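This follows on from our talk about sequence and fold. Go ahead and set the record down below:
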Amino acid sequence: MYFGDFETELLTIRWKNPKLARRLWSYEQGGGLDTTIVEHEGVIYIGCNDYYLYGIDPKSGRKVWEFKTNGCVNTVEPQIHDGVIFFGSYDSYIYAIGLETRNVIWKFKTGSIADSSCDIADDIVYAASRDGYIYALDEKTGQEKWRYKTGDIITTNLTIFEEKLFSGCFDGYIYCLDKNTGRELWRFKTNGNITNSHKFLIVERVIFFGSHDRFVYAISVDGGTEVWRFKGGGGFSATPALLDNTIIIGCRDGCVYSINRDSGQEFWRFQGEMRPWGFGTPKPLITKDSIYVSSSASRVYCLDRTGKFKWEFRTEGCIWCGPHYHDGKIIFGCEDCRAYAIDEKTGEEIWRFRSSLSTQKVPHCEDNFSPYEIEVKRTGNDIEEQFEEDRYKINFGGLDNFEDSEYSTKSEYAHKSEYTSHSDYK
């Protein structure tokens, strides 16, 4: 092609087989209270980025217990069994702490940040870490029984169901292991990170979970076959909650979705104030009359059970974990260095608790994109060149706009599923 006094070649460039994209959050020391609340014998326990795990009186908001680690206690859901509380920390340890004595019964060192949540069954504590391992530890001594290596970072809530152990992973798989031996039973492949700050929802032998690939999945626990999938407008990292015959789940597109748990059909959606991550991580709280959802837009929303707005409560920071119910109060932690209790009917504040630090630390986000295969074709002379395994830093406008890849999202261990996706996002 001739343009005046110079020639140029036209190139056709095609991005082929984009691999898994991921978004990794890290926290520095600050005052944010970002863990799921667990209640035991009239005390609620919540972790904080000031390195403390706090015990708070849910009636008054007064601190009644504390234990300090050497790292942020972030996003985990503490587990309590036989008077001992188990949780992980950014200092890479899994802790077993006596609730009465506040003494360390044992601690187990993993290979990286331990911000996944444990589960406990048959005197075994199951834990995970960003080192990619799932660990089985003796509940009394912390001695390792077995470990299983996944393909990437784990920041999830491990979940026991019967003799099976479930874990999500940044490699896009949900893993199903034999909880006694650590042997892999099956795995199911999605095209995005799987993270959840609460235990997986399992109903009638179907496990429900979201992925950063924009899909919510319903998978059989017996073999990992796909039942259905639902596509939203952004990634899913929240855990769904059960409401009658539907599941309620928040999405990073700023919507809360109601989905039929049998068919994957959308019933309704609620659009909240849009911020990065939207309703990305918290699990909805469902009571007799209402649905409560917290948001990165510094709000807790109260909806009726059909998804209609009732009221909202505003804070001064993002809210990363779901609200907790106690005797007419909705209680939750916030990145603004406070935990709040508000009235379940009106949303009026009842009390607030402040952590030991008043400094908000914005989490650091690292976007990682795996290698792309690039196909370049020069027009006119049919010369093709392929450049494989080159790394490019590409801004897709955030991972919510990451396009579906050519990778199959069906499990390598599952039978073919003729699913349908019942949403407005095709």
